[in-house]
Amino acid sequence: MNNLKKTLATLLLSTGAAIGQGLDLEYAVSDIGGGIYEYRFFLSPDDGWEPGMGWAHVVFGIGAPWPTLTDWFGDPDSLPVGPWDDYASSAGADWAAYSFWPVTTHWIPASGDETLVWKGTAAVDLEQGELLFGTRFVTVGGAAAIDRAVADRIDFVCDPDLDGDGELNVFDFLAFINLFEVQDPLADFDGDGEFTVLDFLAFQNAFDTGCP
Questions:
Q1: Residue 86 forms beta bridges with which residues?
Q2: What is the C-alpha separation between 58 and 117, in angstroms, rounded?
Q3: Which of 25, 46, 137, 212 has its CA 20 to 30 A from that of 154?
Q4: What would the DSSP string read from start to end of 19-61?
Q5: Helix crossing, 170-181 with 197-209: angle to 10°?
Q6: Which are the contacts of 5, defined by CB distance < 8 A and separation ≥ 6?
Q7: Given this model, what pLDDT does residue 17 score?
Q8: Residue 160 in 3-state DSSP?
Q9: Residues 203, 44, 3, 16: what is their CA dihedral angle, to the nearest 10 degrees?
Q10: 146 pLDDT above the threshold of 70
């Protein structure tokens, strides 16, 4: 089912969403050329999270009458995102945005540290304060619904990408070895202030996990 078929013209006209913060959304932007920007999103519960809380119909790039994320294309390699297996779009007279499908499915974090990540591209570079997100459907477990919260723009750092080329490959291993030999703090991957085999293991784990 493509995004056009999943446009939900009436859902965003519903009322009753409580104003409150229950989730935090951070995003990083990279200029990849040709007027196109790559976005990386990190969605997590805020400090008020309690077990059983959940949210449905998470939307981002809220605008009117069009989403602020111009020409957004969600990276299919990021899917699934939590319980959702596709991207979707929603439209309304005062609120248009992008979201996930199925929109009625709740994300119930297993812990307060759980983070959902996804990425995609857009033809606009949104500064701090310009990207809004929210939730529209009924929450569960006492979670607060969110009405136009501000996402925080951050500088994204991929720790195991030590040569900074945007890829994880053998050159990052060579960079780690060089940093380790001179006891550069960047090689202290387990953060204990010492340079031991545990740093090699921590780097290996970070490299295997990759970056979203």
A1: 101
A2: 13
A3: 137
A4: P---EEEEEEEEEEETTEEEEEEEEEE-TT--TT-BB--EEEE
A5: 160
A6: none
A7: 35
A8: coil
A9: 180
A10: yes
Contacts of 117 (CB under 8 A, 6+ apart): 40, 41, 42, 43, 78, 81, 212
As a whole number, mean pLDDT of residues 60-71 equals 92
Question: Tokens 């380790």 label which residue?
Answer: 180
**Which residue is it, tokens 């309304």?**
92
Interval 150-171: pLDDT, tens = 999 998 777 888 876 667 889 8
Quick one: what percent of the chain has pLDDT higher than 70? Answer: 88
Look up residue 93 and give its two tokens.
């007279």
Q: Token pair 């001179």 is at which residue? A: 182
The token pair that represents 37 in the structure block: 């920007």
Distance CA 196, CA 180 (A): 9
Q: What type of residue sits at position 52?
A: G
| pLDDT for residue 72 is more than 90 | yes
Three-class DSSP category at 149: strand
